[in-house]
Amino acid sequence: MRILLLYPEYPDTFWSFKHALKFIRKRAALPPLGLLTLAAMLPKEWSKKLIDLNVVNITDNDLAWADYVFISAMVVQRESARKIIARCKKAGLKVVAGGPLFISEYDEFEDVDHFVLNEAELTLPPFLADLEKGKDQGQKVTEGL
Q: Which domain does 122 fall in, by range?
């Protein structure tokens, strides 16, 4: 299984630090720690690739490589997340979403195949068990306690 982990771009606002980061020769203020943690929780035999859209763009080759896309976002990243999801669906990929944006607005993202909501330590294992059993048909919400 090849998993593409995508972190949406922050809009150009004061809080993105987009212009201030140039002074310190950085392209992102913080690494996408949620996706990095998630990657460590996925089966070791799976191939994983992380793309932070604040640093680089997604290529068609990245999408062609992937079997599934996992996306995590904050509310401020909503528009970038929508664009990413639309592009992934156009490429025929299954999309798994989690993080603050999707916890509060999962009903606004009809193109997402699976939502893994709340803490990944609680919600990811049941999702992976369903995926292993081939239960990945239709939109599903996996929530923790």
A: 2-143
CATH of the domain at 86: 3.40.50.280
The tally of domains found in the chain comes to 1
Q: pLDDT tens digits, the chain, 145 residues: what are they?
A: 999 999 999 888 776 666 666 677 666 667 888 999 999 999 999 999 999 999 999 999 999 999 999 999 999 999 999 999 999 999 999 999 999 999 999 999 999 999 988 888 888 888 888 888 876 655 566 555 4
Question: Hey, what are 108's tokens?
Answer: 């606004």
Question: What pTM was computed for the model?
Answer: 0.86
Going by C-alpha positions, the residue among 121, 107, 109 that lies closest to residue 80 is 109
